[in-house]
Amino acid sequence: MTQVLNGYLGWSFPRVDVAVITSRGDPHDLRTAVVRGAGALVQVLRLPRRSSVVVGHLSERGSFLREGGLMRLARLRGIATVAHLHGSSFARFAARHPRLTGWALRGADRVVTLSEESSEVSARFVPVERVVLIPNAIPSSSPTEKQDLVVFGGVVSHRKGIDVLQEAWSRIDAPGWELVVAGPVRDADLVREGVPGLTMAGSLAHEDLMALLDRSRIAVLPSRDEAMPMFILEAMARGNCVVATDVGGIAAVLEDGRGIVVPPGDVEAFRAALQSVLSDPARRARLAEAGAQAFEERFSAAAVFPKVEDLWLAALADRHPAGLH
């Protein structure tokens, strides 16, 4: 979510001025959380009603209460509101907490989702015409000389399929190739020692991970649960052939020859898919090229941010037609 907000701040929207209202802090620092929450409340109360749009970024749990409450306050004041959904477990969260989910989403004039699943779930709580699927935007990349690297980027955990990846890699025949696993270790008991050709890089700064993807030829993400992971879009932007699993919005992104998608939790299917692109440079290049082209057309900042701006202004126009000038 931080990358999404930083993208907004770094983009020059021609018709909208973007500012961030900080409503959360360290979850273990109650005092700071209260101070920031109160500050956000005051800022929403001071916003001009006819020319403002409040966008609440919701990522399950407390954000539905916190940012959902701010959206509902803004709506009560007559301010246009947009709920922007994040997080890989929204469907499960909504099933477990339908009243809270509905309470938050009904406070929005528009709901932005990252996957078809999230769109379908959102439409159970608000009219379907309010729900819009818009992918996250990713900055473009400069070409770099490629190396025989396979990169995994994300939390090293069961949810991200690290067990599947390690077992699949242990069965791979790819002399000279290296698998680099970059990310904080959450499930240490799943990490295997001494797998040939596998490097555990630990947590990397975002720019270092992007530099790694600039050099790699293949990106992998064998997750069991996702919404629309930024890692896959970032890999496509950097000319990687992507091998991933059919969860969340991944299949819709990689369909039509833009990558390879296999069932989650299936070691042999993942191994076979990865081996196929390791062993066939021509196929690997075709998939990478198709992915890079799709990125430019559908997921680059130049493609996505105008849609986001249009949606913000549509929400404002519905509430205050005279507010647009």
Structural class: alpha/beta
Q: In angstroms, what separates the terminal alpha carbons?
A: 31 Å
> What share of the residues does DSSP label as strand, in percent?
5-15%
How large is the count of helical segments? Answer: 13
What is the assigned CATH homologous superfamily of the largest domain? Answer: Glycogen Phosphorylase B
**CATH class call of the largest domain:** Alpha Beta
Your description of this structure?
45% of the residues lie in helices and 14% in strands. With 325 residues, the chain is of the alpha/beta class. It has two domains: 2-137 and 301-323, Glycogen Phosphorylase B (Rossmann fold); 149-299, Glycogen Phosphorylase B (Rossmann fold, 3-Layer(aba) Sandwich), CATH 3.40.50.2000. A six-stranded parallel beta sheet has the order 7-6-5-8-9-10, sandwiched between helices. α10 links the parallel β9 (241-245) and β10 (260-262). α2 (30-46) packs parallel to α3, α3 (62-76) packs parallel to α5 and α11 (267-279) packs across α12 (281-299). The longest helix has 19 residues, at 281-299. 38% of the residues are buried.
